[in-house]
Amino acid sequence: MAVLVTGIAGFIGMHAAAHLLARGETVIGIDNFNDYYPVDLKEARVAELERLGGDRLAVHRADIGDEAALVTALADADFDRVVHLAAQAGVRYSIDNPAAYIRSNVAGHLGILEIARHRSVRHLVYASSSSVYGANKAMPFRVEDRVDHPISLYAATKRADELMSETYAHLFRVPQTGLRFFTVYGPWGRPDMALWKFTKAILEGRPIDVYNHGDMRRDFTYIDDIVAGVIASLDNPPADDGEPKAGGFVTPHRVYNIGNNRPELLMELIGEIEDACGRKAQLNLLPMQDGDVHETYADISAIADELGYAPTTGICTGVGNFVSWYRQFYGV
Predict the structure, then answer these.
(1) What is the spatial distance between Cα 184 and Cα 92, in angstroms, rounded to a whole number?
(2) What is the CATH number of the domain that holds 144?
(3) Per annotation, catalytic residue among 154, 222, 256, 326
(4) pLDDT digits over 196-205, tens only?
């Protein structure tokens, strides 16, 4: 039976769908193709999936935040697992356009939960975020840590998703895994992310904005490592056995961190981009932005112990792969 992938035209959604297609799965995708960043990139991702999947891929254009549109789009679709990656992304954009986050991340998540409930799906894997840890000082971030002090609306919506999922696991026994992603990067990435912005500016000879004067650390995680965690989670749903799960739940619901388990200085990332581009960056040093955090660092022991997750791609290789893809895609 097929796998439903929401946000299939997005960065992680495209890569997850490509992996599923490569192993012979049938994939049903849904995406609203919004203009948060250029739609032509989303169209290109889907075109690549169509090339890979042929008639094993069907893509529906609908907004998961519109319950009626969601139900109509999937009325004739037959699937038994869901990889739910659709969301309004971006910490800073949530300050300017909060309504988009409630529609996509809260109402949209509820819509997918209802689909999963009424279809009796075998497993729902959904995207959370490292942003839920807010300004927590203890490092590395553990799934057992308290996450009730978000510092952005984006983070608050992702924590709301986790709580709604726990409710559906409790009331309706829907098996679920939430994945707290840590700074995902790689080919086909998002233009609003630092790696993309810096690469574009350096190749065009423009200065780059470096926040907190470069004193920031991120657990940069390469897309192939992220997808490995998504697929391992999908293939191993949590048991409904009343035993404690990662994140402290006793329902068929767990939460994992997926990171590289190795935070890197922002200035080290910039150095790797400079090396890959063969050019030096012009730095515009700025203070910290509202909603940002100084450091992220994932404790991945739960998913490593239970599913054998082990990231393999270092930042030098990952950045090099992205810059090579970027230059080929844009012909620069």
Answers:
(1) 16
(2) 3.40.50.720
(3) 154
(4) 999 999 999 9
